[in-house]
Design a protein that fits this description.
133 residues; alpha+beta; four-stranded antiparallel sheet; 2 helices; elongated
Length: 133
């Protein structure tokens, strides 16, 4: 018994298909409606003096407004959404993984096909046996 190498012509993976399902929460986004108040005063634009007064008022409003705690804001964004617009759905997933390889190869002018556990690359080591004929 001796060993030799054959030239690989083609390698085709054989896949196993696995299916799995799990339950996930799906929530629909609720549209946000922005409400803006109209400035009072009959629609006239304020003059230069009016704009200066408004900017000072704005500065004082920002200082007197309570500042949000960044830790509280982070916790609020990390909490899972719940409510009427959320539901549990079954999600199906499919995975494929190679379990074998169909290999076409040629040795001394004759083509062969074998199913192997690994991809052999460009050359395939084969066992050659001689029997009387």
């Amino acid at each position: 018994m001796r060993f030799d190498y054959a030239q690989v012509l083609r390698v085709e993976p054989v896949y196993q298909t696995l299916r799995a399902s799990r339950t996930e929460e799906r929530c629909d986004d609720v549209p946000v409606v922005e409400v803006r108040s109209q400035p009072s005063g009959g629609g006239e634009s304020p003059g230069v003096f009016g704009r200066i007064v408004e900017s000072f008022k704005g500065m004082f409003r920002e200082e007197s407004a309570p500042k949000a705690n960044p830790q509280t804001a982070a916790q609020a964004s990390a909490t899972p959404r719940g409510g009427a617009n959320c539901r549990l759905v079954q999600v199906e997933r499919q995975f494929q993984r190679p379990i074998a390889y169909d290999v076409d190869y040629v040795y001394k002018g004759t083509k062969y096909r074998s199913r192997l556990a690994e991809d052999p690359g460009n050359r395939l080591r084969i066992r050659v046996s001689v029997t009387p004929g």
